[in-house]
Amino acid sequence: MIEFNLDRGSGVSTYLQLVHQVKQALRLGTLRPGDQLPTAREVVESLAINPNTVLKAYRELEREGLVEGRPGMGTFVRQGITGATLAEHTRLRRSLEAWVHDARAAGLDQEDLRVLFTVVLADAAKEGVA
Amino acid sequence: MSPALEATGLGVRYRRTWALRDCSLSVPTGRVAALVGPNGAGKTTLMHAAVGLLRPARGSVRVAGEAAFVAQDKPLYESFTVAEMLTFGRRMNTRWDDAAAADRLAGLGIPLKRKVSGLSGGQQAQVAVTLALAGRPDLLILDEPLANLDPLARHDVMRSIMAEVAGRELTVLLSSHVVSDLEETCDWLVVLNGGRLQVSGDIEELLDGHLVLTGPDEASAAGTQMVGGSRTGRQVSMLVRGAPPLDPRWQARRPGLEELVMGYLRSPESAALPGLTGVGA
After folding, report:
1. Which residues does chain A have within 8 Å of residue B184's beta carbon, measured at their own beta carbons?
2. Spatial contact of B161 and A44, defined as CB atoms under 8 Å apart
3. pLDDT (tens digit, 9 = 90+) per residue, B91-138?
4. Do B192 and B232 fall within a single domain?
5. Closest Cα of chain B to A48: distance in Å?
6. A1, A6, B71, B238: least buried by Cβ within 10 Å?
7. Residue B278 belongs to a domain
8. Between chains, do A48 and B32 touch, taking CB under 8 Å as contact?
9. DSSP character at residue B272
10. Are B173 and B33 in contact (CB under 8 A)?
11. Which domain of life does the protein's organism represent (chain B) (predicted)?
12. Residues of A in contact with B167 (CB under 8 A)
């Protein structure tokens, strides 16, 4: 099961925050195929948001093929997010941690790290396109 | 889908003063509509006209099905217990779901034997909303339901209203001064200003259809429609409708709900009103 939370000052729209949190849980394996997402009423009762926002997020996840709505039953996870396995995740995380440690030792602060990471990500995405 | 609330050319007059003029709007079924505007804008007047508490001088206002109204000064009897308020409600209403009301109060942890005067402001608001919902209305109209409540109680009241909307087909119209209270909960916006309707529409569509432009005052914003703006030295900041202008000196971003509302309230001559079908800009 997943429990949603909101970052109200983030500027990211509420429905996108819900979408991201489900995807995050799928990546981390806290949500797995067959698992049920909370009902709109449950989400609304904890977060005090408009039920249509929850339905919009679930529709988006459904459109991407990640979940499916079963009439009268609820919304269920159809598939995990394919990609690296958990073991690979762990391995990559270790090497990223080592890299962060390295960069810290070289005198980069939190903001420098973030900028560097974002730039490299953006460049990689550009190469992927070209 | 037929609208839950529809006003056509609605005008309301108190003696010689028009409290509401030429107001045409429709709120689709199942929406949570925010009614905002400064004091004296006509919010309460519109609500009173919708539930038949006053008669329009011009035009009409129509509700599909049953409407329940919670006035701003929580309509409860201080000396009654909560249970007595329920009995009172049952006798005053033809449609009445006593079990649902009792369940709701139990869920909120409000004791039936407690006198209304012994409840907190948040609990009184919850009891008033519970009584309104027990009549199984199709449209719930709340006048400043969050006024005088602390942040926790505001959150609790909104949570329980949202849960009700999720549970069945219910349309809500609620007024508030505090736009940030409405940001996550409402999906329809109605702005009244000085007795005139300025904005009525789907909140996402409204936000998508507007831009906040910042740039030098000589930059051209051709192709957009200006709502309002301000000038600091040579820099202009303005709220516009339409697609981003071609002039590259503009920085454009999507407005927040509060910016959109303030932009219109500061420019009473601007308006964003769809046709009477309700959806679409």
Report:
1. 6, 8, 14, 47-50, 53
2. no
3. 988 889 999 999 989 988 999 999 999 999 999 999 999 999 999 999
4. no
5. 4
6. A1
7. no
8. no
9. B
10. yes
11. Bacteria
12. 41
**What CATH number does the domain containing B20 carry?**
3.40.50.300
Residue ending a domain, among B201, B229, B255, is: B201
Answer yes or no: do A51 and B186 touch at CB < 8 A: no
Across the interface, whether the CB atoms of B32 and A41 are under 8 A apart is answered: no
DSSP one-letter code for A93? H
Question: Shortest CA distance to A37 belongs to which of A49, A21, A50?
Answer: A21
* Cross-chain residue pair A50–B160, CB shorter than 8 Å: no
Minimal CA separation from A78 to chain B, in Å: 24
Q: Which CATH class is domain A14-77?
A: mainly alpha
Do B151 and B217 belong together in one domain? Answer: no
Q: Mean pLDDT by 10-residue block, N- to C-terminus, for chain B (281 residues)? A: 91 93 95 94 95 94 94 86 93 89 91 93 92 94 91 90 91 91 92 95 93 90 87 89 88 92 92 56 36
Range of the domain at B115: 3-201
Q: Which residues of A touch B165 (CB under 8 A)?
A: 44, 50-51
Q: Which amino acid is at B116?
A: V
For residue B113, being part of any structural domain is answered with yes
Count structural domains, chain B: 2
**Where, residue-wise, is CATH 1.10.10.10 in chain A?**
14-77
Residue B64 belongs to some domain of the structure = yes
Backbone angles phi, psi at B21, to 5 degrees: -130, 135
Tokens encoding B1: 């889908």
Give the C-alpha separation, B138 to B197, whole Å. Answer: 24
Residue B21: inside a domain:
yes
Cβ atoms B221, B213 nearer than 8 A: yes
Chain A residue numbers with beta carbons less than 8 Å from the beta carbon of B159 are 44-48
**Can you tell me the distance from the alpha carbon of B115 to that of B104, in angstroms, rounded to the nearest whole number?**
17
